[in-house]
Design goal:
The complex is a heterodimer of chains A (about 280) and B (about 300).
Chain A (H helix, E strand, L loop, with lengths): L1 E13 L6 E13 L3 E5 L6 H9 L6 E6 L2 E2 L7 E4 L11 H5 L1 H6 L3 H14 L15 H13 L5 E5 L7 H18 L3 E4 L3 H7 L2 E5 L4 E8 L8 H4 L3 H26 L6 H9 L1
Parallel strand pairs in A: 2-10, 3-8, 3-9, 6-7, 7-8
Antiparallel strand pairs in A: 1-2, 1-4, 4-5, 9-10
Helix pairs in contact in A: 4-5, 7-9, 9-10
Chain B lengths: L1 H14 L11 H13 L1 H6 L2 H14 L10 H14 L1 H33 L1 H16 L6 H8 L3 H25 L3 H9 L4 H39 L4 H11 L2 H32 L12
Classes of the chains: A alpha/beta (about 280), B mainly alpha (about 300).
């Protein structure tokens, strides 16, 4: 069953400095099935975070439609929990207070929500930290809490916006493995935005590769690596490298095409090509 | 490791007077004594005043200024005892503190809600902002002449001035506080199912607290100063009146005493109410760095 369906998504905005209308997202369509892990990957500045913000309801779309669980999206809602790159934990709430926030908003009675909160803290490996405050946790632990807070709310889809980008490389590997383990155990629906190819391949069932601005879906790559996955074994699999290379080619190709368009005087994407080459 | 450093530290003050120990047994020991001292709350709170009082005393003893214009600590302490005994100082202090309580009470009750209204509604804000800046610039004391005409030499007049002084910096700090709540936190709350009202009470209110607490502190400080200024002009009683009246009859020691009392009272208010409140909230939550943490 489809949990998230994006059809003909387009986003224009007016540059407040130059006053020009810019198309950030040209035409994006894809869907995420229930219990599926889908990553969105693309060259930097291609608007993949904008796609996530639109799905989350933080940003309005210009054209197209986003449907979650059969309902067209308008504004943020608890069916689409977001894990932020900056963690976005509530500093004035304890670890437990953060994890039960969504349940409290739903009006779940205290005993029930505390039990559930503790269950999800155990799941992400934060058992025993209930009464700490977020600033007393390490960056990795903070992001585990960010994940637990969303999962405890049981959303139709969990949106993750480069959640491990601000975490050091070694901890990141550990968190990716933990996320995979949690995914394999609970099978939540995940929409994951990243710029890290290996991360996307390791975690995902499918990878949506976007083109540079104005972004379109360039290709959807299926990752049929066996689960459960571990970094140690994944890196030794030839299929892993094969898929990662394929995705890398798609990304590099795009940059190449942009440079080519730059040289072509008649190229319709002239302005954009210059912009990309200038970066 | 903790135990073998702790022992000599604890023994040191019993052995010698702390201040002289740096001379022969070595610098290490002096440093330990210093560490021990800086961990005591009493020393941390009162220690910085030792050189100030010493300097004051020294200047008074050396007779740099005529004794009629500059008195030393002993004279002020004596005056303090005298006025306490006569019941003048307790009476005046009660009057001053009552006025401050009224002023601060009304000031907070008006300033906080108004600040949040201005901060939360863009239209109200666009309308109010120029007015706010205008009235903030008109000094509180500048209102006194007209306030006396309106309310006479009364508690109302003094309260008006204090409220006026507190409200504007408080409103500005509330607006700044609401603005400084990270957008991601608002988004997180919304995507966890919080409606607009819940977002306000669960996220914006606590998120704005560091700035609001700062605003309350500034507002109270301004209010305290405005009170003294108002008492000097409107005055029929109070610490400000006492100082001004003493100057008129040429008793400088009461002026000095008044200054000391004002400072001590403010310091006590800060140490007993404001600082503990901040320790229990914004510092506990790691939203501001504690003054005492890592200097």
């Amino acid at each position: 069953m489809t949990a998230l369906e994006i059809t003909g998504l387009q986003k224009n905005y007016v540059d407040s400095y130059s006053g020009e209308e810019v198309t950030a997202i040209g035409d994006v369509s894809f869907s995420v099935n229930e219990g599926e892990f889908v990553s969105v990957l693309g060259p930097s500045g291609c608007g993949k975070t904008t796609v996530l913000n639109i799905v989350a309801g933080f940003v309005n779309l210009t054209e197209g439609e986003v449907v979650v669980d059969g309902q067209a999206v308008s504004g943020p809602g608890p069916d689409r929990g977001v894990v932020f790159q900056s963690h976005a934990l509530f500093p004035w709430k304890t670890v437990l207070g953060n994890v039960v926030f969504g349940l409290r908003m739903k009006g779940v009675p205290r005993a029930e929500r505390d039990a559930k909160g503790k269950e999800f803290l155990e799941l992400v490996g934060l058992g025993g930290f209930e009464h700490k405050y977020p600033h007393e946790l390490s960056g990795g632990m903070q992001q585990r809490l960010g994940v637990a807070r969303v999962l405890a709310n049981e959303p139709a889809v969990m949106l993750m916006d480069e959640p491990f980008a601000s975490i050091d490389a070694q901890t990141r590997r550990k968190l990716q493995e933990d996320l995979t383990r949690i995914f394999e155990k609970r099978h939540p629906t995940v929409f994951f935005v990243t710029h890290d190819v290996d991360e996307a391949v390791f975690l995902s069932d499918r990878i949506v590769v976007l083109s540079k601005r104005p972004s379109r879906v360039r290709e959807i790559v299926t990752v049929d690596l066996p689960r459960p996955r571990e970094w140690r074994t994944a890196l030794e699999m030839p299929e892993f490298r094969e898929i990662a290379n394929r995705v890398n080619e798609l990304l590099v190709d795009d940059e190449g095409a942009a440079a080519g368009a730059d040289k072509d005087p008649g190229g319709a994407t002239d302005a954009d090509g210059t912009a990309v080459a200038g970066v | 490791m903790a135990s073998d450093t702790a022992k000599p530290v604890r023994r040191a003050p019993a052995g010698r007077t702390p201040r002289k120990s740096g001379a022969s047994p070595g610098v290490v020991r002096a440093r330990k004594v210093w560490l021990w001292l800086t961990r005591r709350a009493a020393f941390r709170n009162l220690g910085p005043f030792v050189p100030v009082v010493a300097l004051w005393w020294l200047v008074a003893e050396m007779g740099v200024f005529d004794e009629a214009f500059f008195v030393g600590p002993p004279r002020v302490v004596e005056e303090f005892g005298d006025l306490m005994e006569k019941g003048i100082l307790p009476g005046y202090l009660t009057d001053s503190l009552t006025r401050l309580a009224y002023g601060v009470g009304f000031g907070l009750a008006i300033g906080l809600p108004m600040g949040f209204v201005v901060a939360m509604f863009a239209k109200v804000r666009r309308f109010c902002w120029p007015i706010l800046l205008f009235f903030q610039a008109v000094a509180d004391i500048a209102w006194l002449p007209i306030v006396i005409v309106w309310f006479g030499f009364s508690l109302t007049a003094v309260t008006f001035v204090i409220v006026y002084t507190i409200v504007f910096p408080l409103m500005l700090s509330v607006v700044a506080g609401v603005e400084q709540v990270p957008r991601e936190l608002l988004r997180a709350a919304r995507s966890l199912g919080a409606g607009r009202t819940r977002v306000f009470f669960e996220v914006i209110l606590p998120g704005a607290l560091p700035s609001v607490a700062g605003g309350v502190r500034t507002g109270l400080g301004y209010g305290w100063r405005a009170l003294v200024a108002a008492e000097i002009i409107v005055g029929t009683s109070g610490v400000g009146f006492m100082m001004f009246d003493a100057r008129r009859v040429g008793d400088i020691s009461q002026v000095f005493l008044g200054m000391a009392v004002l400072g001590i009272l403010w310091y006590a208010l800060d140490a007993m109410v404001l600082a503990p409140f901040e320790r229990a909230t914004v510092e506990r939550w790691g939203m501001v760095r504690s003054l005492e943490a890592d200097g």
